[in-house]
């Protein structure tokens, strides 16, 4: 009798040890080939159940930018992300927008006054799960004082959207000269760099510009997988 009890206790102990091992094995991933999660802004994950709505600061900004986002939105929905194009509402950019809001607005040289650059940021909860974000498109594009080519016009808005969702630039010191340079990113055999490459990447062709490249999709998948690992719904 005593022996049987001990055996049962040992079995329970073994089962507990197994559970602990499994919990430790499921760790979040924050970077991979051609993608990187913005851990600098404390982002770890993206909620698969959260409904995300893009809200624009003006009708003119919505009509300018919403078409450029459509291809990326189709891809993000295919990954299981709930993404919708919302309406127009002026909001303060001094604080995080309400949960599920990606606020698209415009500012003059919003990234430290750098000509031609835009800026985006994401808001995260205490677990590191993104819950809202802000995109400041550089007003120089619409005013015409900074000329974007056709490919860039299509690629920059979804690049900034992905920043707001939690992705960072995947640039790395590919040529090992000690410096991570602009455009220094992995590329496909066709020469396509991640959309998230800094200062810009993505497809250049009419058929594909504005789309996430496979690397970027892997980044989105990692953000979603991390949410599940963290137990976020
Ligand atoms: Ca380098
Ligand atoms: Zn960027």
From TrEMBL:
Keyword Signal on entry: yes
Signal sequence, start to end: 1-25
SUPFAM superfamilies assigned: Metalloproteases ('zincins'), catalytic domain
GO MF annotation list: metallopeptidase activity
Keyword Signal in annotation: yes
Domain of life, source organism: Bacteria
InterPro entries: MetalloPept_cat_dom_sf
Keyword field: Signal
UniProt-listed Gene3D superfamilies: Collagenase (Catalytic Domain) (3.40.390.10)
Protein name stated in the entry: Peptidase M10 metallopeptidase domain-containing protein
Protein species of origin: Streptomyces bathyalis
């Amino acid at each position: 009798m005593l022996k049987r009890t001990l055996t049962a206790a040992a079995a329970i102990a073994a089962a507990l040890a197994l559970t602990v091992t499994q919990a430790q094995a499921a760790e979040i991933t924050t970077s991979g080939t051609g993608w990187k999660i913005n851990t600098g802004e404390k982002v770890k994950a993206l909620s698969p159940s959260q409904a995300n709505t893009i809200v624009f600061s003006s009708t003119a900004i919505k009509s300018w930018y919403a078409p450029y986002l459509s291809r990326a939105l189709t891809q993000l929905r295919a990954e299981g992300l709930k993404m919708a194009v919302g309406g127009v509402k002026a909001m303060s950019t001094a604080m995080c927008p309400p949960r599920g809001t990606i606020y698209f607005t415009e500012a003059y040289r919003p990234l430290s006054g750098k000509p031609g650059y835009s800026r985006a940021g994401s808001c995260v909860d205490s677990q590191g799960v993104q819950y809202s974000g802000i995109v400041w498109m550089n007003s120089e594009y619409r005013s015409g004082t900074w000329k974007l080519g056709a490919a860039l016009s299509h690629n920059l808005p979804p690049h900034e959207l992905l920043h707001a969702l939690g992705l960072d630039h995947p640039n790395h010191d590919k040529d090992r000269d000690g410096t991570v340079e602009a455009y220094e990113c992995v590329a496909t055999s066709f020469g396509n760099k991640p959309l998230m490459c800094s200062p810009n990447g993505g497809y250049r062709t009419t058929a594909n510009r504005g789309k996430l490249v496979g690397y970027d999709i892997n980044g989105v998948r990692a953000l979603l997988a991390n949410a599940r690992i963290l137990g976020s719904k």
